[in-house]
From TrEMBL:
Protein's recorded name: Peptidase S24/S26A/S26B/S26C domain-containing protein
Gene Ontology MF, one: DNA binding
Keyword match DNA-binding: yes
Keywords: DNA-binding, Transcription, Transcription regulation
Domain Peptidase S24/S26A/S26B/S26C stretches: 30-139
Highest taxon in the source lineage: Bacteria
Length: 140
């Protein structure tokens, strides 16, 4: 009987306790998909995240979509740090044509592309005329 209880305990999923979470202010939503409209009327909102929360982030964004799976999930919160330089291969928060994105930056022969990690979603070629505004690098 005791042996059965010990075996059953191995099948128990432990859920995080409420004290393992904290409320933070998200700056907005990043699209992991076709684009999330971002303008001056976008209001910050409160989200609950698991601890620990990094102390040195500039923005927290909630993800909307599936184009960055399996690494980043829909509704996950990512933390973003402003940087002066951006490199090929970094995961960035970016604004292009009024829409905010979470994408991998690819720069080949001076041409930038916002890359989806999920092959079901297309990559987005950055227009040389309009460019892309990089908000920062994702580090969580």
């Amino acid at each position: 009987m005791l042996n059965n209880q010990q075996n059953n305990n191995r099948n128990v999923i432990k859920f995080p306790k409420d004290d393992d979470t904290i409320e933070i202010t998200a700056s907005g939503v990043l699209s992991a998909g076709v684009g999330e409209f971002l303008d001056d009327s976008t209001k910050p909102f409160t989200v609950t995240v698991h601890k620990p929360v990094p102390s040195n982030y500039d923005y927290a964004f909630q993800i909307n979509g599936h184009s960055m799976e399996p690494v980043y999930q829909d509704k996950q919160v990512v933390f973003v740090k402003k940087e002066d330089d951006y490199r090929d291969g970094q995961i960035i928060a970016a604004v292009m044509d009024g829409c905010a994105y979470l994408k991998k930056l690819s720069v080949i022969d001076g041409e930038a592309t916002l890359v989806s990690l999920n092959p079901k979603y297309p990559n987005i070629k950055v227009d040389k005329e309009t460019g892309v505004k990089v908000l920062g690098v994702v580090f969580s």
